[in-house]
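Slide 14.
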Amino acid sequence: MEVLYSSTRDGSKFYKASEAILKGLADDGGLFVPNTIPAFDFDINKLKDWDYKETAYQVMKLVLSDFTEEELRNCINNAYDSKFDTEEIAPLVYADGAYYLELFHGATIAFKDMALSILPHLMTTSAKKNNLKEKIIILTATSGDTGKAALAGFADVPGTGIVVFYPKDGVSKIQEKQMVTQRGNNVKVVAIKGNFDDAQTGVKEMFGDEALKAKLAANGYVFSSANSINIGRLVPQIAYYVYAYGTLLKEGKIAAGDKMNVVVPTGNFGNILAAFYAKNMGLPIAKLICASNDNKVLYDFFQTGEYDRNREFILTSSPSMDILISSNLERLIYYIAGNDATKNASLMAELKSEGKYTITDEMKANLTDFVGGYASEARCAKMIKDLYDKCGYVIDTHTAVAGAVYEDYKQASGDDTITVIASTASPYKFMGSVMSAIDDKYASMDDFALIDELEKVASVAVPKAVDDIRNAPVLHNNVCEKNEMEQAVTSFLGI
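Slide 15: predicted structure.
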């Protein structure tokens, strides 16, 4: 069965998966969604026998139905190779009553590698399938991790270029150093004087600018996105939840058909949306627990049914979640509205004009799979220390938000369902916050000075991604105002 894609804001036009991947964002500003969520066509018990690559193929072939088996397997084999420092790709580690799905073993030690290792291959394959002649320019806003993972994925890929915008004071020192030291003849990194929402808004406006599109086309360029607004980013993320279930089966922790809970630290909502898609494809997931930091716009939404971004933007120790406009939530809104593009478009217009919207009671009734929770900075730090003291297991700040929210949920609900927590980044990426939580004697030390200290404490070798940037030269020192983003792009392209 062929799965086609349409915009969350206009259900009248349909695109093949490869076409949706190339476009990134729909012309009307909406996000591409499948016209149907296909059911698994395999016995779920088989998961215990499949490695990560086979699991990814069996899941992704259903959703990216216009890719041939050869094309898709080629993309998967090129993505999940020696760039990852563990054969499992996404190991599952038990610690203090929960299973941590380690999604940070790729080249940039964050979960974004899981999808951004394959996106360049999906995109270049899509370009060939659709006889695209223009050079693809990847335009991306990042709250810290997407940027480096996208840069690493697209650097020097023929037929592509990439421009990444990040908030100047809104990422960790390690995240920034990873980006500004990126090599490649087709890459540009720009810091903006603003927050992530400003960067994301600027990127979306460029996608919707018809005059800019015409200018690009006249010069042989076309925009696409590596953000999770691109369906080619979202689909590969479904696979790791399926793989986690297969690992639990293999280890005899569950029997086929038993349910698991999933806890995901999220700001932009893409990672937990992938778990929602996995559930709707047939993965036995009970609760989808959405964990927020102090920027708890999603928690408030699940509590009240009102999404309101009109609030203070808080810089936290989990910067990849410092987001007030959760782009991927739009895909869920479309779904709970009964796939009603008109209703969704109306709510998104309210968000743009008023900064908020409220869903109907009928729509809210479709959210029973979800539980919202949030963890303060102090609670997050306590989670890191407590888990280390109990188990010697060191987690990063984003994973700590999820762990804390899970503890609160379990205490309040009494739910003892086996639970998988998405561990989204290596603790090495946020060393200052992690080490200070374990012992305040580290609070005065610089992130880079803490590298060797963390290695001793965690008994985990320093990742190559961190070692490589210790003394790497800064290659990008561009800073612009948020209203100068378009100029930064056209200057890079020489148009």
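Speaker note: The chain is about 45% helix and 15% strand.
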